[in-house]
LAO/AO transport system kinase (Lentzea waywayandensis), 640 residues
Amino acid sequence: MSLAVATAVDVAGLVDRARDGEPRAVARLISLVEQGSAQLPLVAAALAPHTGHARVIGITGAPGVGKSTSTNALVRAFREQDKRVAVIAVDPSSPFSGGALLGDRVRMGDHATDPGVFIRSMATRGHLGGLSWATPQALRVLDAAGFDVIIVETVGVGQSEVEIVALADTTLVLLAPGMGDGIQAAKAGILEIADVFVVNKADRDGADQTARDLKYMISLGRKDREGPSWRVPVVKTVAARMEGLDRVVEAITEHQSWMAEHGELTERRLRRAGAEIEAIAVERVRTRFGPVDQLAKRVVEGELDPFAAAELLISGNLRP
Amino acid sequence: MSLAVATAVDVAGLVDRARDGEPRAVARLISLVEQGSAQLPLVAAALAPHTGHARVIGITGAPGVGKSTSTNALVRAFREQDKRVAVIAVDPSSPFSGGALLGDRVRMGDHATDPGVFIRSMATRGHLGGLSWATPQALRVLDAAGFDVIIVETVGVGQSEVEIVALADTTLVLLAPGMGDGIQAAKAGILEIADVFVVNKADRDGADQTARDLKYMISLGRKDREGPSWRVPVVKTVAARMEGLDRVVEAITEHQSWMAEHGELTERRLRRAGAEIEAIAVERVRTRFGPVDQLAKRVVEGELDPFAAAELLISGNLRP
């Protein structure tokens, strides 16, 4: 009992220090979250009253479109507005290190010495629900720590990656000229989630064509929707030279004003919280399941089908 | 009650017709599975005694490496051995059609008129657990329908896609020269899941370098492992000209002999069945949760943290 109390005090202390802007306390809290620490509920309870202020911006796109460069440029643009900015870069885990492959130092780049910037790589854990579990909690840490803007960057091809980016208030989808036509973009499942399209490397051949293709696909998509809908802008940038970044920040601001006006920001945050609660509940229930080995054996042998096995797993009886 | 009996008869009839090699019955069963039909448990029970015979081959790799061409070539190579072959191509869903973007007809290519080949696109549904739920059931349909080889093709970048391919007995990871260095491959999280590496488009500059890089990374990875381990081969192909496909089939056969010898095939199928049972159980439990709206509202307002909310969701009480 006294141990639990001591632990609770530590967590509260960490949260206080994180809220005072101490980067090591922020990093420690994210590690607790990422490791699925037993103290998670305590951490979450301590953070809750301080959340809801940060705006969350998702950045995604295929490899090679310049996501990291754009993230860096965007951090710089927000810093010029005196915003405190945090970045979470979600990397598929390396099988060898078990962690994020690009170290945080590699990513720090321009902002290594800027106390108003916090950058963190998170590894994907390779188990179902891993990302949808840990990333929202990391967002809560950064939100409670008082960052004005949180950028979540993911490789935007897979289903889980799309789900992470869907956590954002505003989602930027990056493309580059010559990275494949509109069908590639649609295949990646990214048309639906974009609030702002960014055609990066716009000094290359084909940038105008890519922008035109996107606008055409946006116009096709809009017909299917009911009610007022946000007109997704297409912005051209050369992130490496900071060109077009002002327009990106403007588009983000416009999108957030639009959402506030149409009640969409609240809607989105309710959906996000609902998904988060459900993901945690599912994970909790999963840990209460008994061992699955005997059931798996019977399914492999064709004696039992997986649905019947699942019912047995839930009821806790290994024999019918 | 009589309706339930009638339904049961229909499902049994469909399964019989699928086992007689009727493609429309196979397609209908997969549709039932994909739509998460209420008849799923009946379908699964009728299939179970007939499963466990097909070998499942996963094919994955980044966009542009030639997955579809390689799948087509592999189908042709297996057809030359008189195997019946089924292909499941998992595409991220289009926001506009809600279904797979590349129609089955586009994919049929060479095999449109071959009764020994069945090709099906499955859309990713965009909800957590969607893929891990539907794809194994589709595999069961095809297995019970008597296909010797089932090829599952996915875009291999995201976490969910990696999980689908992990359903396979043998997983091929495709790369192409000039698609980025070994770090890109490692970032995609695909080194760990490869049983066979295929360097496609091997007539291009850099193919030898890509193969050498892969072999080096494989040698690094092996040191961490205990016990006997499969020596992952690297095969060069030009799938568009059917070059190297014999060697791919040979590598698959060798891998499956190795697995049989080391008890790994059974191990893998037990893990697969266990994951399948758990995914179904989780989904079943999820459907029993009450509405999450009020809890989400309290979380958004900072009144409740998501862990406490999850406990309330599980206990079914919306007020503490």
About this structure: Residues 51-272 of chain A form a domain with the Rossmann fold fold (CATH 3.40.50.300).
